[in-house]
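note to self: dont lose this again. the chain is below, predicted strucutre after it. 317 aa total, dont forget to put it in the shared folder this time
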Amino acid sequence: MAIAKAERLMNLALCLLGTRRPLSKRELRGSIEAYLEAGSDDAFNRMFERDKDDLRELGLVIETVENLDGDVGYLARRDSNRLPPITLDAEEAAALGLAAKVWQQARLAGAASGALQKLRAAGLPEDVDPYGSHGALEPHIPVHEAAFEPLMLACRDRRPVVFDYRKGNAAQPGTRHVEPWALECWRGHWYLAGWDRDRGAERVFRLSRITGKVRARAGRYTAEVPDVVTVRETVAGWAGEITDRSALIRLRSGAGYPLRSKAASVRELGDGWDELEIPYGHGLDAWLVEFGPDVVVVEPAELRADVVDRLRAVAKG
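---
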């Protein structure tokens, strides 16, 4: 469905850019196959208006021209839609080249390769290796979750989705209706930030807990999409990166080095245990469960209860 819409938008853009005179709706409908397949005039009009708005949001300057007879036509003048030359110095090209090299999965490998070719076309000399000075640096962002690709497309196309999601302390997954905003990677895990329609609030979902297929749904978003900075702060908060209090835990000696790196203080208790004061934010209970019997929560009581609930859910399967 997303591919069909992209093809329709591309065809409309080519028609508007390729004409020397304004084209009426009737002429555009007769030139684009997807419009010819519209079931009725109303369906075509709605589709065309949405496509026109989407192209304008993407930056295409579309003019609306009314002739002497009162007929309305549309065109996109080439001089109004021509981008200025792209100039990159060696450091800028290297940074973009390094970013393109991050993506290793098959879905984005072609796009990353094409981006590097465009860097060459933008002025990067052929004899300059964009990664030459970073030979020991090989960045990777692994994506193993099947939900990543459909959610990436849904974020791009602003399309609501439905999926089954298993919370950390739940034995069975539940259905969630979400308006996806953005995908972010924290601590090697991918998270989706979006608007949960059932709860009427923003939520963050860990992709590894999405079960089954992600299903796209028709219709527009009902909630305003925040800017990218706000989304990142939301993901950071839910992933435990933003904290405003502390927790006291006991950790087995020689274990839990990631927890020790976050600790504000460490005190030896003897008998093979240490006491740590660590930042307490959303998601800490799920992180502590990963260390199993090597961790005991001392306080606060609510964190201890959350960890116990998660361990019981795991024990039940």
